[in-house]
Amino acid sequence: MRVNGTLIATLNPGEFHELVTADSLHIVASAPVLVGQFLKGFGATGSGDPAFSYVVGMEQTLSEYAFTAPTNLSPYPDNYLNIAIPTTALNSLQLNGATVDVSGFTPLGASGYSVGNVAISTGPGRIKAAKPFVATISGYSQYDSYLTIIGAKYSAGASPDDIVARVSASTDKPSYPADAAIELGASVLNLGTTPAALSLVLRINDATGVEVARFAAHDLGAVAAGATVPHTQPWNTARNPAGTYTLVATLLNAQGDVVDVGSTLFTIIADAAQGAGKAALTVAVDRAEYAPNDRVRISNLARNLTVNAPVDNARVRITVRNPQNAVVYTHVHVLGQLQANGLRSTDTQQTLKTAMEGTYTVEAVLIGSGNNLKSATALPIGQAKAYDVDVDLATATTTFAVRANAPGGPGTPGGPGGPGTPGVANPIPVNQPWFLWLIGVLLAAAAAQPLRAGTRPSSQARQRGGLQ
After folding, report:
1. pLDDT in tens, 262-272
2. How many CA atoms does the CB half-sphere of 243 hold within 13 Å?
3. Which helix (H) or strand (E) holds 51?
4. What is the distance between the alpha carbons of residues 346 and 460, in angstroms, rounded to a whole number?
5. CA-to-CA distance for 432 and 287, rounded, in angstroms?
6. In the 8-state DSSP scheme, what is residue 271?
7. How many structural domains does the chain have?
8. Which of 98, 173, 327, 359 is the most exposed place for a label (fewest CB within 10 A)?
9. Are 142 and 201 within one domain?
C-alpha cells in the first residue's frame, strides 16, 4: 500500500494499518481496501468531538452531489465541504450554481488531484464539477462535530450502467369534455453515448394526487445514443369528474430503476348535453292570487345538467319583491352537494301580513361551487382550471298577485286560500295546480335518482324577514 507515492505497508487479508496525520493523502493499493477517516476531539485539537467516516474510492465518485448541513436547534457554527478534485476540473467547481473560489486549493503530489475546503451555510445545497470528485462534509462546534461522505456510486461491477435520458409528457389538447378521446403522449431522448434499454410507464393523477389510471409499461427497446423515441397512448375521459389532472411519464432502465420523470397538466371540463347550461332551475307558487293575509307556498326545482361535475355547497336563494320593487322576503335552501345530473326540489311558505295589493315577483337563484362551472373553458397549455366558487348557475322568476277580494286565507285549513294554519292537517289538495306540479317534480326526481331504501333527501334552510 502506497501513500503519496511511498510504500508504507504490506497488508495480509484482514490486517489494517493506521496513519496519524493532518495531511491530505493519496492512497493506492494493489488490492481492494477500505479506508476510514477519524477526527480527534476537543482533547486533541481544542474543538469538536470524535467523528468517523468511510472514504470512497476514486472509481465511486460523482460529478454532482446534493447535501444538507444540519439545521437543528443548535446548528454547527462552522461547516465545510472537503474536496479532492481532478486539477483539470478545478475551475469548473460550482456551489449552488456559483463558481467556487479555488484559490486556496493545493495540488496533492503527483496524484493529478487538488484538495481544499469550501465553507458552507447550514441547510441544503448542491455542488458539481465537470469531472467526478471526492467530497465529504464536516462541521464543528466547541464540543461537537460530524463527518460523513455526501454521496457515492456502487463499486465497479455493482453499479447499473449510467443512463442519461429525459422524458417529457404531453396531451393533444389542454382540456376535454366528458366522454372524450385523449391522445396521451411522451417523448424520450437518450442523452448518453451508448444505446440504452428503456421502458415507459404512463399514469394519470387527479388534483389531489390520487391515481385514476395507470397503463402497462411500454418497452422502448434499445434507444440509440442521441435518438428520440415518441410514444402515444389513447384514453377516454368517460365520466371522470371535472377538474385538473396530471399526466405523469416515468422512464425506467432495464432493472426497473427510475431514470427520469416528466409530467403535464390537462383539464376535464364540466360537460352538459349539447346546448344545455350547467344547471337549470324552476320556481312556482301554488296560486296566482292571494288575500293580503294569506300564505304563499313557493316551490323550486334545481337540477345539475352536467354529466361529470358535482356542484358543491349548492343552495337556492329565494327573493320576493313587492309592487314597489322592495325586498320583502328572502329564504335560502341549503342543498349541500348536487351530484352530476342530480335533481333536488324544495319549498317554503311566505306569510303575508296586510300585504299591499299588486303584483309580486319571486326570484330564485341556484348558487354553487365546483370545477369548471363558469362558461369560459379555453385554457392555455399547462394552466390548471381554477375551482370556481359561488357561481350563479341558474335563475328563474315567477309572479303572484295580492287582491283584497282574492279567495281563501290563512285560517281556513285545507281551504282554497293555501296550506292552512301551521300544525293543522290539511286534506290532500289534489285539485290545486301547485300540488299537481309538485307531484310531477317528485316523480321526475325519483326517475332520475332512485333513493336507497331507508334514506331520504334532506335540506336545511335559513330565513329572515316577513312581508309587511
Report:
1. 999 998 888 76
2. 19
3. strand 51-55
4. 10
5. 8
6. -
7. 3
8. 98
9. no
From CA 297, how far away is CA 346, in angstroms rounded?
A: 11
Q: Report the C-alpha gap between 329 and 467 in whole angstroms.
A: 6
Lowest-confidence region among 105-109, 178-182, 348-352, 378-382? 378-382
- Tens digit of pLDDT for each residue in 122-178? 888 999 999 999 999 998 888 888 999 998 887 666 655 667 899 999 999 998 988
State phi, psi for 433 to the nearest 5 degrees: -60, -40
User: What residue type is 422 in one-letter code?
Assistant: P
The three three-digit cell numbers of residue 337, written as one number: 352537494
Distance (Å) of CA 228 to CA 191, 195, 201, 234 = 9, 12, 16, 20
Give CA–CA dist 383/367, Å, rounded: 26
% of the chain exceeding 70 in pLDDT: 81
Distance CA 174, CA 379 (A): 6
The verdict on 355 and 440 lying in the same domain is yes
Pair type for strands 165-171 and 211-214: unpaired
Separation between Cα atoms, residue 178 and residue 104, nearest integer Å: 64
Contact 107, 114 (CB under 8 A): yes
DSSP string, 332-365: EEEEEEE-TT-EEEEEEEEEBSSPPSEEEEEEEE
**Residue 193 domain boundaries:** 165-268
Secondary structure element (H or E) that encloses residue 433, with its range: helix 433-448
The residue behind cell 394519470 is 204
Q: Are 286 and 297 a contacting pair, CB within 8 Å?
A: yes
Among 84, 111, 203, smallest CA distance to 93 is for 84
**Same domain (yes/no): 284, 421:** yes
Closest CA to 212 of 235, 230, 232, 179: 235
Q: Which residues contact 262 (CB under 8 A, 6 or more apart)?
A: 166, 167, 168, 169, 186, 248, 249, 251
In angstroms, the CA 344 to CA 316 distance is: 10
User: Pairing mode, if any, of strands 289-290 and 387-402?
Assistant: parallel
Same domain flag for 258 and 315? no
CA distances in angstroms from 131 to 27, 90, 259, 262, 365, listed in the order given? 20, 9, 21, 27, 68
Nearest to 386 by CA among 377, 397, 394, 398: 377
Q: State the DSSP string of 222-244.
A: EEPTT-EEEEEEEEE-TTPPSEE
Distance CA 203, CA 143 (A): 51
219 and 264 in one domain?
A: yes
Q: Phi/psi at 174 (nearest 5 deg)?
A: -80, -25
Listed residue (351, 344, 334) closest to 298, CA to CA: 351
Q: In one letter, which amino acid is 99?
A: T
pTM for the predicted model, two decimal places: 0.45
The three grid cell numbers given for residue 324, joined into one nine-digit string:
314597489
